[in-house]
Amino acid sequence: MIVGIPKEIKNNENRVALTPAGAQELVKRGHKVYVQATAGENSGFADSAYTAVGAELLPTIEDVYATAEMIVKVKEPIAPEYKLIRRDQLVFTYFHFASSEALTHAMIDSGAVCCAYETVERADRSLPLLIPMSEVAGRMAAQEGCYFLEKPRGGKGVLLGGVPGVKPAKVFVIGAGVVGTAAARTAAGTGADVTICDISLQRLTYLADVMPKNVKTLMSSEYNIREELRHADLVIGSVLIPGAKAPKLVTRDMLKLMEPGTVMVDVAIDQGGCFETSRPTTHEDPVYYVDGILHYCVANIPGAVPRTSTLALTNATLPYVLQLADKGWQRAARENAELALGLNVVSGKVVYRPVAEAWGLSCEPLSL
Fold first, then answer.
1. For 40-68, b where at least 16 C-beta lie within 10 A, e where not — what string?
2. Roughly what angle, to the nearest 10 degrees, separates helices 178-189 and 131-148?
3. What are phi and psi of 140, to 5 degrees?
4. Which of 96, 144, 313, 336 is 20 to 30 Å from 119 by CA-CA measure?
5. What are the strands of the beta sheet with 234-237, ordered from one edge?
6. What pTM, to 2 d.p., does this model score?
7. Catalytic residue at 283?
8. Minimal CA–CA distance to 3: which of 320, 269, 268?
9. Cα gap 360→24, rounded to integer Å
């Protein structure tokens, strides 16, 4: 198969979809790998590292899309890429269709085969291609929240860990999945007073056993969320319903419960956000205020640490990339139910129900 690795063009997206080590594995199996020149540069991988393992360079993104049978990316295609994607081309990347109606319709119109990292799902309901970036995003959420709590950055001027004689900051994490757990653990490591909530008592019981003593667990409800917001210095939203829009758990009226300069980090922004007042931001312009509350809603948080993120992402995606390249998408999906669940839009039809429901579209049965 001919595999193409374009350079990411989303604002400040510095990751690349495949490391030279990943490219080498594809070449060893007889596949052709074309990498856009400088695609790996911002992740620390020079063009020469790819050519050394048998990959070939192409000068432009147009060349990569025109040449490849399978495109492997990091982030969803953005508007300049829509016209480059052609019928029956396989695109394997994060799509987050439920957060963008324009992207959904563009991919329907393209006739491409869209396999989304975020909905590849194991029998135990875990999301193997979301986990590594969720680990990064969770850690970064606490780190960025700490940074923007500083007064010169617009926050209320609170140090997460406090100092002797001064209480630590209160961090409230909504959602106890991979992102929330990583965020809570990182915040706890600074000495912050952390509360994490979720609707799963089983998950909370587990976290109560394994988390540091400065992490408290709380059953998620509107009442409990409102009470925690009154005292929080940093709120981290990390709620996920696979492939679907995130529920709005912090509403506009709740902002008045918080002190000015409180920081809210919405890691669920890729799926529409779990705060009613969230809108996507970029690393270039990451924050804004609503009613005196600082919002950080960067849609590609792991892009800020591309070296770590690229290595972690390729570790997870490469086994699936190899299956798709070796077998073609239809056979690979027939033989691996995890990959079949990754298929969201196929040849002009939406085949993943949460995406169809997000935009009031019909969901067609998947034919393999």
1. bebbebebebbeebebebbeebebbbeeb
2. 40
3. -65, -35
4. 144
5. 215-219, 193-198, 170-174, 234-237, 263-266, 293-296, 287-290
6. 0.90
7. no
8. 320
9. 42
Give the pLDDT of residue 242: 82
- 231 given a catalytic annotation: no
Per-residue tokens: 28: 């060893």
Which position among 198, 233, 266, 270 bears the catalytic label? 270
Tally of residues, the chain: 368
Give pLDDT tens digits for 124-160: 999 999 999 999 999 999 999 999 999 999 999 999 9
Structure tokens at 149: 């709590």
| Catalytic pick among 96, 233, 266, 295 | 96
Q: Of the candidates 8, 4, 6, 56, which has an alpha carbon nearest to the alpha carbon of residue 300? A: 8
pLDDT at 31: 98
Three-state DSSP string of the chain = CEEEECCCCCCCCCCCCCCHHHHHHHHHCCCEEEEECCCCHHHCCCHHHHHCCCCEEECCHHHHHHHCCEEECCCCCCHHHHCCCCCCCEEEECCCHHHCHHHHHHHHHHCCEEEEHHHCCCCCCCCCCCHHHHHHHHHHHHHHHHHHCCHHHCCCCCCCCCECCECCCEEEEECCCHHHHHHHHHHHHCCCEEEEEECCHHHHHHHHHHCCCCEEEEECCHHHHHHHHCCCCEEEECCCCCCCCCCCCECHHHHHHCCCCCEEEEHHHHHCCCECCCCCECCCCCEEEECCEEEECECCHHHHCHHHHHHHHHHHHHHHHHHHHHHCHHHHHHHCHHHHHHEEEECCEECCHHHHHHHCCCCCCCCC
At residue 304, the pLDDT reads 94
pLDDT digits (tens, 9 = 90+) for 330-353: 999 999 999 999 999 999 999 999
